[in-house]
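Lab notebook, bench 4. The sequencing result for the construct came back, and we need a structural model before the next group meeting so we can plan mutations. Quick request posted to the team channel:

Model the 3D structure of this chain.
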Amino acid sequence: MDYKQDSNNILNGIKYGITYFTTLRIKLNYFDVNKKFYQGVLLSLPIVGAILSSIIILIYIVLPFHPLYSAILSSVLYLFLTGFLHYEAVGDTVDGWYASLSKKDIYEVMHEPQIGSIGAIAMVSFMLLEISALVYCFYEELFFLIFLAFVLSRVGVYFALSFEYHVKSKFIILLKENKKEFRVLNILLYPIKLFVDYTLNKLQKKLGFLNGDTLGFLIVVLEIVLLNIGLLISLI
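Done. Here's the predicted structure in token form:
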């Protein structure tokens, strides 16, 4: 077994994941797309959460403005660092949810280049919820809570890969087929697993399938839920 090649492919998968899931750019050389590569992409998700949370926390600390304004700037910067990728998924998922109430093709509705009015309203509402929670965390200097929410929300994707996905969601299917089992996560993060299972079961029942948009939606919802639970605990 070529351990060096395996390590390189895991590293390439991590670099690819950082480039794909953020607006940060890392130079990628030629690499083999194999099992180790996809494991690296999956591993990149919590790493992305750690990187993005660290960046916005550092920005908040060094900004010379009033703490409230610095908190708002840092929170909005987070959305730009993700390229609004997950919020686009929120709009598409909500559009699909409402399309299920009619006879429209849900998959086609979710993959239209434009977002419907209901989806746009949902995007703005979720953004307000997350930005408000982040500003609260910054203002109270609950930096570890931000770090934890960003990392654990992306670890949730690992649990999400136990579900079946739309046949056209080839990238996610490949992640699912090549993921490495970490049974200890099922024990340590059992409440998050329960939340992921509940949310995706609801979406699958309503939409008739799961895809990349539903995973993006899951990440946003998990971030908001984890931030708010953390804030509630901090008040005790």
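Residues 65-235 form one domain.
Will bring this to the meeting.
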